Amino acid sequence: MGDMNTIGVSVKRKEDYRFLTGAGNYTDDVTLPHQSYACFVRSPHAHAKIKGIKKDKALRAPGVLAIYTGEDWAAAKVGGLPCGWLITDVHGQPMKEPLHPCLAQGKANHVGDQIAVVIAETYNQARDAAELVEVDYAVLPAVVDVASALKQGAPQIHEAAPGNTCYVWALGDKGATDKAFASAAHVTKLEFINNRLVPNAIEPRAVNASYARHDESYTLYVANQNPHVERLLMTAFVLGLPEQKVRVIAPDVGGGFGSKIYLYAEDVVLTWASKRVNRPIKWTAERSESFVSDAHGRDHATTAELALDKDGKFLALRVHTKAAMGAYLSTFGSCVPTILYATLLAGQYTTPAIYAEVTAVFTNTVPVDAYRGAGRPEATYVVERLVETAAREMKIDPAEIRRRNFIKTFPYQTPVALQYDIGDYEATLAEAMKLADVAGFPARRAEAAKRGKKRGLGYSCYIEACGIAPSAVAGALGARAGLFEAGEIRVHPTGKVTVFTGSHSHGQGHETTFAQVVASRLGIPVDDVDVVHGDTGRVLFGMGTYGSRSLAVGGTAIVKALDKVVNKGKKIAAHLLEASDTDIEFKDGQFKVAGTDKAVPFGSVALTAYVPHNYPHDKLEPGLNEQAFYDPSNFTFPAGSHICEVEIDPDTGITRIVNFTAVDDFGNIVNPMIVEGQVHGGLTQGIGQALTEACVYDKESGQLLTGSYLDYCMPRADDVPSYKVGTKVTACTHNPLGVKGCGEAGAIGAPPALINAITDALGIREIEMPATPERVWRAANKKA
Amino acid sequence: MKISMSVNGKPVSAEVETRTLLVTYIRDNLRLTGTHVGCDTGQCGACTIHMNGQAVKSCNILALQAEGADILTIEGLAKADGTLHPMQEAFREHHGLQCGFCTPGMVMSAVDLVNKHPNPSEETIRAELDGNLCRCTGYHNIVKAVKAASAKM
Ligand code: FES
Ligand code: FES
Fold first, then answer.
1. CB atoms inside a 10 Å sphere around CB A347
2. A722 vs B88, B99, B143: nearest CB
3. Which CATH superfamily is domain B2-76 in?
4. CB within 8 Å: B92 and A28
5. I want to staple A283 with a disulfide (CB 3.0 to 4.6 A). Which of A38, A594, A690, B84 is the partner?
């Protein structure tokens, strides 16, 4: 039975068969009896007063069942969308939280803002009728970038947020930082734009909401990463519905990357309207709608300085960031550029003094929220661009300057609130340098130069905080939700197992990884374990999947429930074996009396639990079904070294990534194949940010210029290389699996590695992301 | 208008609005929901099917244009007994899919790619797949899968 242990084995995924044969069940695939369809009327203007809405013509169009506008919304006295994280500003005041209406209240604040919803028998009818809704706008001047929004006299977006400022927030010791700068031997200063990105999961957001009159309950199918949170926010904060009357199902979800964490207006409007029209209502975003309604990512403007002594030891880091919130606060928008950003500015280094100040700014754009990495890519970009630039300025090898500053003893308390439990940054870097053949780089560079090409090498040694987090700490920092996870192990009479988890898989392969964890512990085949997720009607509770938390937090909840199963199993086995339960040990699927060959297999214990003829009824209940909640005691801290080698054609400005190496420390690994896949995907999104992707708004009109795949350059198969990936393992010290999380690493580490490589190749200090051929060509051909 | 065609070897016919896209017909009328829609500009390839043996983006064709055609969707690729096509098997073996949303289109494109370029190089695979977006895998394992499948097809 020993071969039932599959921890560390690349078990092929259980979910693949259905996806490969077209049997996946995504939200848009769900069609209910008497299905109706919704189409949203959206603002074509970035900023405009709504003087009036005429819907009579549209109401008379064929198939139309109902049309609702902001007026109906206000009349029904339902609330706005809540923000899940309260940030307290430098003066101790709460952040400004202007109303985030589900249907615009007299004013549109970004292109794509929802003005009205049309519900009809077919989607085409809803769409045709939406064209007939006449909205009378008075266009207002718009502001789309953070710097302009903060200027005197800038258009004001919300009365409740003077100066378009949501908050000014700070972290770290300003006095100590300023003092260290005053005595520094060298200061490196850079200004960055961390470019706005559109997450672009390939499955567009979709909702199918219905109401059942017989028990006054609602069912909401939605492409979402955390259905229980969605339900809680919607029932308690917006619609005031009884939580127990709402079932949220997030079936197969086609990628999320953060963008499907949030409670969106469409979800709420359809749920609300489903009772009014008494029909199930489906809405699926067209891609052009996704571009103007899915929460975007990044969009920071930062000035950052690093102070060093004469040997290249870091003395202090000072960072000023302006972060866009977009037109409204999205569910977790406020915590991304603060709690998930400034706390990571120590990176892998012993920098003793750090001070960060963040101004969160409203702009007439789609709201900004967490996108793969969320705050940590922005922090890593700041630190790793500064470090590499400082090394070049001080003529110290960039790997050497990192080694001189690495944290070497753990636990390590950073000056920005976090305490790292474990890591081995030197070993990780050394492994990456070996895999990337850094030693052979000078020869490759010389060879490329002979062909008229410019080669460059760039490093990035990132850290991230994952597995968020202790609820008590998060609560003290302003979180309005808990951050634990829940799991349930249901052992069936036949010894087969169903696992219910509050984590949600939208590509991560939990149905396999979690099954491996359970099967290995119980000594049963992986195929005997099914994992259920994404349904508030079946799963006890859950906080969902984001921040690379599923295995570290959700997996641990499962392990805790497993422990309870095994403990109860021991008692049943003790009874069957006529031994004391303290003498029973469980190994390889057998309950054994220690030191004897008396044993009973797991399957028999399961059967006995449900057919309790011979059973210790005086001590135990029948059945074998256990639940657990787990609230972590700390974040986990995955870290790694990424090395990028590029070759640039100075005649065309085209950058070719000739080698990308990533060595990551994710702690223990359950399924290496799945982990590698996560790294590949993350790297490609990071490369996308650095090389191809930019979300661009027109400064005058506030129109989104990159509103389709024609204009927004998603990385394609021929834009990226095959990767070299490796791992180093230091097991996480505070969860029983020793795991840290791997979902975001690639997106965090890749951008600075790539930009460091390009600036190295061209011998320049800075280049803006994305480093498009035009930008690279201009940099390569600039007259000195 | 009335249309008739063969889908996965079965004759089908229906009355549709003239503006109905082939993908809408496949998904909504035939309830073959394995073919996905990821964009509205013909750029993502999630809707790729085979029409008369060629990979096409079914969001770029009206159902009317498929009159009389032989259509193969992802649901028709495996054998009737459930045995996967070598391309499907290779995607599974090499972890060429994560969320699965791009996968049907990716697999249909990949089959066509190997039909046209037996034993393709990595460069050819990457170039030929550039009409299919995947946001999850970073393409690395898709390329590996296509290469492996090409040896078995
Ligand atoms: S849906 Fe057909 S190409 Fe995107
Ligand atoms: S597997 Fe998710 S988009 Fe390709």
1. 28
2. B143
3. Beta-grasp domain (3.10.20.30)
4. no
5. A38
Query: Same domain, yes or no, for A444 and A331?
Result: yes
Domain termination residue (choose one: A278, A293, A308): A293
Q: What is the 3-state secondary structure (H, E, C) of B61-101?
A: CEHHHHCCCEEECHHHCCCCCCCCCHHHHHHHHCCCCCCCC
> Taking 80 as the threshold, does the pLDDT of residue A707 lie above it?
yes
Q: What is the mean pLDDT of residues B117-122?
A: 96
The confidence band for A503, taking pLDDT boundaries of 50, 70 and 90, is confident
Q: What is the pLDDT of residue A476?
A: 83
State the first-to-last Cα distance of chain B, in angstroms, to the nearest integer: 39
pLDDT at A659: 97
Tell me the CATH number at A593.
3.30.365.10
Torsion sign over Cα A54, A55, A60, A62: positive
The domain boundary, picked from A268, A293, A318, lies at A293
Q: How far apart are CA A233 and CA A331, in angstroms?
A: 9
Q: Contacts of residue A15 in chain B, CB cutoff 8 Å? A: 100
C-alpha–C-alpha distance, residues A615 and B18, integer Å? 69
Residue with tokens 């996968």: B103
| In chain B, domain spans | 2-76, 86-150
Range of the domain at A10: 2-22+484-630
Q: What is the pLDDT of residue A491?
A: 97
Query: Do residue A449 and residue A377 come from a single domain?
Result: yes
Query: Do A366 and A408 share a structural domain?
Result: yes
Q: What is the pLDDT of residues A546-555, one digit of tens each?
A: 877 888 888 8
A vs B, Cβ pairs < 8 A, gives: 184
Q: Are residues A532 and A592 in the same domain?
A: yes
Q: Which residue matches tokens 């309830």?
A: B31
| Strand (E) or helix (H) holding A337 | none
Domain tally for chain A?
Answer: 3
Q: What pLDDT does A242 receive?
A: 96
Percentage of chain A lying above the pLDDT 70 cut: 99
Q: What percent of chain A has pLDDT over 90?
A: 92
Can you tell me the mean pLDDT for A436-441?
98
Please name the amino acid found at residue A291: F
* Chain A residues with beta carbon closer than 8 angstroms to that of B123: 718
Average pLDDT on A53-74 reads 98
Phi, psi at A366, each rounded to 5°: -60, 140
Task: Check CB contact under 8 Å for A720 and B139.
Answer: yes
In a domain, A182, yes or no: no
Residue A506 pLDDT level (bands cut at 50, 70, 90) = very high
- Judge contact between A457 and A433, C-beta under 8 A: no
Superfamily, domain B86-150: [2Fe-2S]-binding domain (1.10.150.120)
pLDDT at A784 over 70: no
Relative to beta strand B2-7, strand B70-72 is parallel
Kindly state whether residues A417 and A452 are assigned to the same domain: yes
- What CATH number did the domain enclosing A224 receive? 3.90.1170.50
The mean pLDDT value for B108-131 works out to: 97
**Where do the H-state alpha helices sit in A206-341?**
227-232, 265-277, 287-293
A677 Cα distance to chain centroid: 16
CB-nearest to A684 from B102, B107, B138 is B138
State residue A1's pLDDT score: 43
Average pLDDT rounded to a whole number, residues A707-736: 96
3-state class (DSSP) for residue A661: strand
Place of tokens 């266009």: A139
Cβ atoms of residues A386 and A188 within 8 Å: yes
Tell me: do A272 and A355 sit in the same domain. no
pLDDT at residue A683 in the model: 98
Does the pLDDT value for residue A132 go beyond 90?
A: yes
Exposure on the CB side of residue A450, measured as CA atoms within 13 A: 5
What Rg value do the Cα atoms of chain A yield, rounded? Answer: 27
Find chain A residues with C-beta within 8 A of B37's C-beta: 28, 204, 284
